[in-house]
Amino acid sequence: MSDTVAAPREVTNGRVLKIALPIVLSNVTIPILGAVDTAVVGQMGEAAPIGAVGIGAIVLSAIYWVFGFLRMGTTGLAAQAIGQGNRAEVAAILTRVLMIGISAGLILILLQTPLLWAALRIAPASDEVESLARDYMRIRVWSAPAAIAIFGIIGWLIAQERTRAVLVLQVWMNGVNVLLSILFVLGFGWGVNGVAFATFLAEWSGLAMGLYLCRAAFRVPDWRDWARVFERVKLVRMARVNTDILIRSLLLEMIFLSFMFLGADFGDVTLAANQVLLQFLHITAYALDGFAFSAEALVGQAVGARAVAVLRRASVVASLWGLGASVLLSLGFLAFGAMIVDVMAKNADVQDAARLYLPWMALAPVLALASFMFDGIFIGATRTADMRNMMLVSALIYAAAAVMLVPIYGNHGLWMALLVSFVARGLTLAARYPALERSVAR
Q1: Distance, CA of 79 to CA of 311 (rounded, Å)
Q2: Contact 122, 133 (CB under 8 A)
Q3: CATH of span 9-230
Q4: Alpha helices in 43-123 (DSSP H)
Q5: What does the domain layout of the chain look like in residue ranges?
Q6: Which residues contact 158 (CB under 8 A, 6 or more apart)?
Q7: Which one of 86, 225, 303, 441 is most buried, counting C-beta atoms within 10 A?
């Protein structure tokens, strides 16, 4: 791999869509997997297995989510190395993230007993459900090295605009999971353990597929240039970037957790309605992720090449496509939201409550767009300290809004506060954007 610097490529609409659309399609496969797992154990005719798989999957997803910084940080760092024409560093980054992901997974395996015990204390259930969930998690945790390493591989592929490879990886992994779940549970009668074994094998096969998709990097010696891989300056920078992203993500998670806890004060019906409407927010994230990821890759490459004009165009073009998607989502939620609510919740009281608060959720895609897009822009530029600091400011603004609005407007006020947090994230990062451009121009 040569280190020859190439002129940055033009940012076109087609290039943005080529990155974004495979990500949107790959995201579609995520909820399908959860639905199939639930449906498969549901055929057993008992409630406990469904609850066990649900709790087990949520607990492990929450633990793995902590390592999501590996995906974001890798995209920014690798994209900048590509923009610099430093192909040797691109290969070294892949080696680093694989080592970090596998090491983190091994640590989780070693700490599984206290982690799973604590998780079940936080989310207690019946003895039967807890026993089944514990068995499920004890099987699945052995694929933690693969699951976390895949975060890094996905980030590395996105940096190179290889999102069709990301789609292949996700479809492969989720397809293997679905087929094995059906075979192990309905064919072999393994119950909850069958679902766990299916996911365990799917995640290890996903790592194998991911390494195959990255095979070009292993054909040259740069990936095992240990002096470069363990270069102190690069490791310190990676640690700083990933720590900033982790803190930012934890603050964001605190906002959503407090939203659920505060919603619980209004009773089970309101809590259930909020949970139903938050699924609309997941749909929004799945759609806008594609355009945010486009910004990550293109902005990162522009920053590496020190091309301010390309950076600005990448930010604008990706954001305009994101705006179009967010407007369509908002209109779709207004037009079909009530029908979707009725499908998701069969309780009449929950349906009525969800319809009451639906207009707030319909505003969310448009009001959250700037936060999504600036996240992508700042990740690509690895301006992660700004992301961390502005997330803290936004969390404080959210808390102040909740304190003022919830006592007056109840759950309406809670939704207002959540939307205020989205706007605050977008505006505070927008205020830091000029400094981002100045740092690249220097």
Answers
A1: 12
A2: no
A3: 1.10.357
A4: 47-65, 69-83, 87-110, 112-122
A5: 9-230, 244-442
A6: 19, 23, 71, 75, 166, 293, 296, 297
A7: 303
